[in-house]
Specification:
Elements lengths: L5 H6 L7 E6 L5 E9 L3 H4 L1 E6 L2 E6 L16 E4 L2 E5 L3 H10 L4 H4 L15 E9 L2 E12 L2 E12 L6 E6 L16 E4 L4 H11 L5 E10 L5 E7 L3
Antiparallel strand pairs: 1-2, 1-10, 2-12, 3-4, 5-6, 6-7, 7-8, 8-9, 10-11, 12-13
Length: about 240
Amino acid sequence: MEMISLEQELRNNSYPGRGIVIGRSADGTKAVTAYFIMGRSNNSRNRVFVEDGEGIRTQAFDPSKLEDPSLIIYAPVRVLGNKTIVTNGDQTDTIYEGMDRQLTFEQSLRSREFEPDGPNYTPRISGIMHIENGKYSYAMSILKSNNGNPAACNRYTFAYENCVAGEGHFIHTYKCDGSPLPSFEGEPKLVAIPDEIDEFTDMLWDSLNEDNKVSLFVRYIDIASGKYETRIVNKNR
């Protein structure tokens, strides 16, 4: 697979929706993830990321303007021991609870489908990072309607073992802007992962569409020690 420029990929797409990046820093010492949300409606744009224990959650920036919270208020990131879960919805909790009961990542998601927001039927994208004894692997998942047909759910899981330094993968909910919004297609995209968290954070935030971007989360986890650094950027301040 050819590596693409993540910066150009974001600059050339006004509405990828919600996106997850997972990979390994160029020097090989850090497990890296990023998650961003975008919005076209006032309800979607009225959000911020806030820290919640070792993870984060979304909350309304102006509670008086919050409309339907069902698909926009959730915990995108949770930590279960040596596993970090990153998703675009409340399936974060489903994965956390399933894996806590010794189910696999894929098994935990069997009870979930795409979001019930026809005609878009937004895919549920999820990632799991596993660090143990100096080894790091990750997996990504997408649950999507069958080409816009909600009668069927198509399930795809991509697993990456012995992650290569400087490489990561990017998956997002929508192929591009549209009406209805077309779902992401194909494998997660191969992208480069730099060593510096601030460099990566700035690149991601600056590359997202100015009108549609809402919030960004970035975390670098030291593979040897498990210690991590986090950055959160919110358009609403």
